[in-house]
Amino acid sequence: MRKLISYRKEIIIGIIPVLLSFIIYMGFPVGILVMGAIMLGVLFMMSRRGGLAMGAAGKKVKARKPSYLTFDDIGGQENPKRELREALDFIVNQQKIQSLGIRPLKGILLTGPPGTGKTLLAKAAAQHTDSAFVAASGSEFVEMYVGVGAGRIRDLFKEARELAVKQKRNSAIIFIDEIDGIGGKRDGGQHREYDQTLNQLLTEMDGVQGDENVRVLLVAATNRKELLDPALLRPGRFDRHIQVDLPDKGGREAILRLHARNKPLHPDVSLVKVAEETFSFSGAQLESLMNEAAIYAMRDESEVLTAAHLTLAIDKVMMGERMDRETTREERERVAIHELGHAIMAESVRPGSVAQVSLTPRGQALGYVRHHPQQDQYLYTKTVLEEQIKIALGGAVAEELHYGGRSTGSRGDFEQATNIVRTLIESGMSDLGIIHPEALTQEQWSRENGVILDELIKQTRLLLGSHMNTFKQLLQLLISEETLSGDQLRTQMKRVAA
Ligand code: ATP
């Protein structure tokens, strides 16, 4: 139905000549014919006007009132917030920039992973500058028919100006999420519709003048800046590029605090600890974590969110929903051996790092080991990367030691291990030395990959082989309890070693 509505213009254009031919064929008098044509014309004009209000070709490009969201409602992200505020001064201090002859800022590009708060920043920008706010997503402009996407871009700018006038504001912010949907590199001919949409966007941006009644600023977001057409990135178009990264520990804590504002917390909850345990979580994942913890509290008929609810929520966001999968005893034992392999290896190379070993199936995994990230880390040495590979290989090696062979349960681990090997090679830390990845043939890749993994499997086998007693002591406990804490694991490893 929606598709039908979006093609309304095309359908009407098609119907007019058919109807006229039919009328002539039936031999209607000329007067009625002219009247009919006029009525059809009016109908067409009305549909066009409706189409404009709704975005060309009937698809509604949503205009939203600026929601009352300020920069204080965005946790962490101090640098992007500062850079954005500075850029927005161009709108706020309009007179000053005119007196100095500075050309108006036309576009701000926010780049970064999903869920890091780019949309929130755009909304806060509208609030900060008291602008009308219109938002759309790149995918809304992608159409088969040449000119439809371009029409929608025209309408979006028009609508932003109209909304600002209606709301008695001097400026409008247009937010386009996933700009790569329309702003990708042009390929010179194959996709005319796509090229026209992008050209229209460039034309609209070029048309933005500083002395208009309503100043328009385009804020766009993308996770893939490298895909954007260079024409969009040149000065005078998207003048400012602001990187919005995953939050660091302090940022995560600030985001958790914001989303805990309306939730009663038990005194045993430490949001600092939760922030420590959620390395690489995005703002959206942290919001989801707090929400899931509240749902667990409701299931428990608890008045407050406890530390245990938050731990369950971290596992859920990290690993997916708990599954009620029936597994045989043999399967359960193999999964337990596999997970103990990861955990013992992790404790051996990074003592104190295991938070929990679990046999609870979640998402695709039949079991998992949760690690404490001790601190946020952005640079990795060769030793650290090799340790990560050995931890990933620990599961498969433990299965080999106990059963003489591997199972399909190691697929994900091998993918992780080979990805880290790739990082090692690309960072010039392999025996190949510093080399451009594109200069390597497929054969060289797989040979070096094999050499590195063979050596690390050998080391993992040696280490886990010396812990056969620990496996024996912990296996039954893990199977009966379903989870082992990091402390239980460490105590047992120490006892066996003594
Ligand atoms: P995408 O690239 O997928 O469009 P995005 O970067 O635009 O994502 P947002 O839509 O701004 O992300 O954020 C999604 C949700 O995550 C927000 O509604 C909010 O609940 C939460 N969130 C993300 N970042 C933050 C933050 N810094 N502070 C508070 N909440 C945040």
Automatic annotation (TrEMBL):
> In which domain of life is the source organism classified?
Bacteria
Q: Which InterPro entries match?
A: AAA+_ATPase, AAA_lid_3, ATPase_AAA_core, ATPase_AAA_CS, P-loop_NTPase, Peptidase_M41, Peptidase_M41-like
Protein family (similarity comment): In the C-terminal section; belongs to the peptidase M41 family.
Cofactor names from the entry are: Zn(2+)
Single GO MF annotation = metalloendopeptidase activity
The GO biological-process annotations, alphabetized, read as: proteolysis
Stated name of the protein? AAA family ATPase
Q: Which UniProt keywords apply?
A: ATP-binding, Coiled coil, Hydrolase, Membrane, Metal-binding, Metalloprotease, Nucleotide-binding, Protease, Transmembrane, Transmembrane helix, Zinc
Q: Which Pfam families does the record match to this protein?
A: AAA, AAA_lid_3, Peptidase_M41
* Residue ranges occupied by any AAA+ ATPase domain in the UniProt entry: 104-248
Keyword Disulfide bond applies: no
Extract the Gene3D superfamilies matched here: 1.10.8.60, P-loop containing nucleotide triphosphate hydrolases, Peptidase M41
Q: Where are the transmembrane segments?
A: 12-45
